[in-house]
Amino acid sequence: MISIRNVSKNYGQINALKNFSAVINKGEITGILGPNGAGKTTLLKIITCYMYPTEGNVIFDEYDIWSNSLKIREMIGYLPENAPLYSDLTVVDYLKFVADIRNIPKTAVMDRIRAVSDLCDIRSVAYKRIDALSKGYRQRVGLAQALIHDPEILILDEPTSGLDPNQILEIRDLIMRLGKEKTILFSSHILQEVQAVCDRAIIINRGEIVADGSPDSMSDSIANHREIILTVRSSADIGAGLRSVYSVKDVKTAAAAVPGEFSYSIFTDKDSDVRDRVFDICVENGAKIIEMRLEKDSLEKVFRELTF
Question: How far is CA 50 from CA 44, 72, 73, 79, in A?
Answer without folding.
Answer: 8, 11, 9, 12
